[in-house]
Amino acid sequence: MEKTALRLAFQTPLDGRLKEEYNSLLQASRQHLQEIQEKRCLGADFLGWYTLPNELEREIASVQTIAQTLVNYDAVVVIGIGGSYLGALALAEALEEQKEGMQPELIFLGFSLCADYMANQLARLKEKNYAVVVISKSGTTTEPAIAFRLILAALKQSANGYSPERIVAITDAKRGTLHDLAEREGIRRLVIPDNVGGRYSALTPVGLLPLAIAGYDIVALVEGAKAAFGALQTADPNTNLAMQYAAWRNLWYKEGRSLEVLAMYSPYMRSFGEWYKQLYGESEGKNGGGVFPTSVCNTTDLHSLGQFLQEGTSLFFETHLFFEKANHSLSVMQLDGIADGLEYLVGKDLHEINRAAAQATAAAHEAHAIPTAFLHVPLRNAYWLGYLLYFCELSCALTVLLQGNNPFDQPGVERYKKNMFHLLGKPGF
Ligand code: PA5
């Protein structure tokens, strides 16, 4: 069996009516892939992410040039919310121990309005000489705008002082408050392409710049995404895993399962779960429909949500994301003189024990009639995270197109903003 490729395995057998339904969804997703390729799907103005991995050579060079100018700071404050920070956060955490050099620490802000959190972060920053990367496609989102103002004020009062050289703004090419402010202040700007929406922007400067500053291998990340783009262009449903995953998700959705649990088996992947939830949740939850995505990190969460997932309301299907290999080998050793009851594990690798936990969980859930699939990722490294990220983006787009919705807009997000602006007395609301 090929172990150096992403693999998707449906544990729950599909036969009879389910198989037929699955095959027809597979054919429909094939048509939607063609629509994406011919730029005529719903939301076609936002398809920039589709070919992005192949178009990043110049972008990587300019991101790396800017990153080099910021590597001598103690920390880099990355300000953004939603798609403007979750990709960088997810990848930074997923690859945490793999960054190179003594690069600045990344401190994410602008994703919350919690006064205590903000005050404590500002206090922490007083001790540091830091640069700022402020990210907002629209350039007008309240949370990052407030955080940016607080940071600018803090810089002005600090011993190091405010200077535009320590700031980079990533925003729209032509418009928005952040764009205009950056231009007036002489702050360097990088662009989020018009045709790439926030949650599909991890491979633009939005994700690449923070990661490059902090010493992550963005070249390998993009190489992985490029390989995924190459592999997932095929119209052959038997080999296109993104089509298969989209069809499988919709199959169980149609069978009445309106919640997906993405189960991962590494604490490094917790924020990847946040990114996944935003990608699918904001893309899919429309017109009264869609699958509600959630995530767990096992085996940790088997001791919190495990009981519910095993025996509670059975309204979900489950995808287990497992890395085929670990980066470290750690076997359970002989422990002479202390009887801890683990003799049966002596010589077993911790990763194999983790795999047994994943297989055991899937089997227990399947026995409870919960549809399960495994996404086998070869290794937790930049290349395979890039691959996985692109796989998720394409399968998400196909999933939502199968539901007849636009995968790239988020009209519902505006509703709370209008109410909040009204409550706060913003002119015009
Ligand atoms: O995916 C999206 O489009 C959203 O989650 C946005 O990324 C988020 O609302 C932040 O928007 P902006 O980058 O305009 O500040």
Got a strand count? 10
| Shape designation | globular
Largest sheet: 5 strands, mixed
Q: Which range does the strand content fall in?
A: 5-15%
Average pLDDT rating: 96
Q: Into which percent range does the helicity of residues fall?
A: 40-55%
Q: Point out poorly predicted stretches.
A: none
- What strand line-up does the widest sheet have? 1-10-9-7-8
Structural class: alpha/beta
- In whole angstroms, the N-to-C terminal distance is 60 Å
Rounded to an integer, what's the Rg over CA atoms? 23 Å
> Which cofactor or ligand species appear?
5-phosphoarabinonic acid
Element string (H = helix, E = strand):
EHHHEHEHEHEHEHHHEHEHEHEHH
List keywords for this structure.
alpha/beta; 429 residues; 5-stranded mixed sheet; 5-stranded parallel sheet; single chain; binds 5-phosphoarabinonic acid
Give an overview in words.
This protein has 429 residues and is α/β, with parallel strands linked by helices. The strands form two sheets. A five-stranded mixed β-sheet has the order 1-10-9-7-8, sandwiched between helices. The longest helix is centred in the N-terminal third of the chain and has 21 residues. The protein is globular and about 65 Å long. The chain binds 5-phosphoarabinonic acid. The site of 5-phosphoarabinonic acid has 15 residues, from loops.
